[in-house]
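User: Can you model how zinc ion sits in this protein?
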Amino acid sequence: MIRSGINGFAKQARSRVELHVHLDGAVRPSTIWELAHTKGITLPGANFEEFKQKINARGSGSLTKFLDAFNIFMPVILGDLQAIYRVAYEFCEDSANQGIAYVEARYSPHLLATTVPDSPWKVMGDVTPKMVVETVSKGLSQGEKDFNIKVRQILCCIRPFPDWSSEVVYLCQEFRSKGVVGIDLAGDESQPTHPDHKKAFQEAARLGISRTVHAAEAGPASNAKAAVYELLAQRIGHGYHTVEDEAIYQDLRARDIHFEVCLLSSQATGAVTLDWSKHPAIRFANDDLNFSLNTDDPTVIQNTLGDEYDVGFNKLHFSERVLARTNFNAARSCFLPRDEKDELLNHLKEQYGLQECCTRL
Ligand SMILES: [Zn+2]
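Assistant: Here's the modeled complex, given as structure tokens:
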């Protein structure tokens, strides 16, 4: 039995699980604003409210606007270990305030470092990718304690930078005991996947590091197939265009591959049409596909996980049962070790008032 009403669902304490959120896309706008002023960096907008609007790509349908927002604020954060610690710590507080029990936060250590020569923002210094992971680990660990939430990390490889990927695998291995549970591949999927990414993901699989890949977000269904068969992904980031190839869709469904759906992001980036009634997640829900709801980049979409559930309920007309199922899908597809995953599932069952014997909604 599910407790009554969408509002009742929303109010359940610490009952949600989030699998797809970028830590560097989840920075509080107020933190960016404050740090920029301390550092003498000029931001667009005459005041804070105007600045917030400048970096808000919600509903824009424009990948350019979405990516431009990162160009505005990333230089304020990257290479600043104090700022990175603060972002990680505040992320825990913000997630806890949204009723999240467990979240996997992802980021590229290379994009936040200043020793990487081909970094897109050309801010050079002495902060290495390893120092970034060390700092994020410390910030999250303190935040977990202070806000009573469980947070794990996924380290991202970036498609146009295949040279970084072997170090990402190394960092995943090195920081396993400090909360890193998986590897991701993000970035422009219009080019074929570089062999160095494939090598890195195969090595990650050999080492028992869990794998998710951004695929079929803006690109074709074949990218999702390649993610699963060549990069050995257990989860797909987005995957909307998979529905355009029935054979691939049915195959991934039969394999119980998890799809990390981000509704507001999918419209913000123009990955899908602005017509909610045609959103691929409706098909996912009707087919009982293994998918979850996620925020992706709250800094530039200015959304909460609650907003995603509201969109699912109000725009895609998901039933409470479907919404609850997406949350349980997230828990059973998360990258925690078996015993911790069981603990999380039992916690959710308790929160939803489900009997111990019920394994699926
Ligand atoms: Zn993403």
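A couple of observations from the model: The first strand starts at residue 16 and ends at 22. Residues 1-12 have pLDDT under 50 and may be disordered.
User: Helpful, thanks.
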